[in-house]
Amino acid sequence: MKITNPELANYLQTTLKNQYQSFLFAKPEPASIRVNTIKSNLNSLKQQLENWEVPWQPHPVNPNGLIIENDFLPLSHSLPFFKGEFNYQGVASQLPVLALDPQPGETILDMAASPGSKSTQIAALMKNKGRLVLNEVSTRRLRVLIVTTLRSGGINDATMRLSGQRIGTLLPGFFDRVLVDAPCSALGTLPSHLDEISSWWSIKTMNSLANLQYFLLVSAIKATKVNGIIVYSTCSISPEENEIIINKILKEYPVEIEKIPIISGREFQNGLISYNNKQFNPDLKKAIRTYPQKSQMEGFFIVRLRKIAATKIHPTKKTMDFSPVAQANNSNVADVLKHLSKRWGIDLDYLSQFNYLIGKKRIWLINKDWQEIPQLEFNKAGILLAEKKYQEWRLTNSSVQFLKDNITRSILELNKEEIPALFKTGVFEKTDQAPGYYVLKFENELIGSVSLFNGKLKIRLPHSFDLVL
Ligand SMILES: C[S@@+](CC[C@H](N)C(=O)[O-])C[C@H]1O[C@@H](n2cnc3c(N)ncnc32)[C@H](O)[C@@H]1O
């Protein structure tokens, strides 16, 4: 393996010294998954893997993670994946949320959230309770985040599209915990992405990323309550994107580094306390580093900070406006819920346990911990319960998977031969049933929302695929 970018090769040699060759030739991280405890549990996932004869190993730290040495199916083509019972998430990528240690009922921010592997991990550890704000600046990546979170069945999240740097001013002292999984040079993933990273990496790009990372972290500190927790992580091995930033932050802001209880003492390295003849705050050894050549996982840096005093609030800067969230007895919501109850046979008492956000054509279901929702750049909250089509409110795949047996009408069952045919293209010829919208049943389970018009049964999928049963 040879790096064709001399600036990068030179930087890595200087930074990694005698580890340079072993880093370059490190075995890439194996595939790994994490069970989504909102929808399933580890035992049933393991049973399913055994049925498919897919070998797995436990994750070295996360009790909900599994390592998949050979994803030959692949698992992403399975119904449990479609139903959001597990997510793909890198081995090292499962660590930052363990360091954050989210608790049910808290108010938490995932500042740079797409594609959402850590967001869904946070939602599951919060047991779908409390308030989880997901932020992502890129419109294209926001769409991916929304697909991931809808599939995972979270009802405690609200998603915004803001520059993370603004959140500290818009929502000062608002959060119990903040994750800054910062955009980075991804040098920790170099052994598996050599050509891609070599094509754009330069010292200048790294420094401009470090500048962005610093301001994201400052914003996160401002957005956190006193005594709250901030976890900063990158999948980069560069001290410029990690220890140098934290060392500067420790001098300028009221935060302290804490040990990371669940992770420390394992096969990880400590954060650096010196680099290029510069000494850092000795507490940086409480940070954690992973290296591909040492623990067969991507290179990650993770530090956990506690905010120990208030940060200044700018008196003239405007903070976030909120809009109220509607309860089930709000007249607009109640009309839609009555319609849904009649059309799909859902008990109204069941629906009254939740709060709602309603627009002209969409209604979102969210947990009752949300009483009001951020107004600015708001995109999505909880589950998309239903969409209005030709005077009818149609359920969605995510709401069917959430409501399950609470739906008792308009159910259409497919068998083992029919279901793969539907997923292969998203369309399946069916002429023996009246046209309309239906809920799809397979093997005694309600799994999605389908339409049947002109003899064509259709399901909405992010992409069609050869389903593995
Ligand atoms: C390392 S990725 C996050 C991965 C994600 N946390 C996960 O585990 O699935 C960093 C994300 O930050 C986003 N981003 C870049 N600049 C940002 C900014 N100024 N504010 C918020 N997000 C930003 C990128 O678009 C990217 O999706």
Task: Give a verbal description of the structure.
The chain is of the alpha+beta class and 469 residues long. It has three domains: 6-29 and 90-307, Rossmann fold (3-Layer(aba) Sandwich), CATH 3.40.50.150; 321-403, no CATH class; 410-469, Archaeosine Trna-guanine Transglycosylase, Chain: A, domain 4, CATH 2.30.130.60. The strands form six sheets. Strands 5, 6, 7, 8, 9, 10, 11, 14, 15 and 21 form a ten-stranded mixed β-sheet that branches. A five-stranded antiparallel β-sheet has the order 17-18-19-22-23. The protein has a five-stranded mixed β-sheet with strand order 24-26-27-28-25. Strand 2 (57-58) and strand 3 (65-68) form a beta hairpin. The two termini are 39 Å apart. The mean pLDDT is 95. The site of S-adenosylmethionine has 20 residues, from helix 6. S-adenosylmethionine is lined by residues 93, 111-118, 135-138, 141, 163-165, 181, 183, 212.
Q: Key features?
A:
469 residues, alpha+beta, Rossmann fold, Archaeosine Trna-guanine Transglycosylase, Chain: A, domain 4, 3 domains, 10-stranded mixed β-sheet, 5-stranded antiparallel β-sheet, 30% helix, globular, binds S-adenosylmethionine
Structural class: alpha+beta
Distance between the termini: 39 Å
Name of the top-level CATH class of the largest domain: Alpha Beta
Q: In CATH terms, what is the fold-level topology of the largest domain?
A: Rossmann fold
Mean pLDDT: 95
Instruction: Using the CA coordinates, give the radius of gyration.
Output: 24 Å
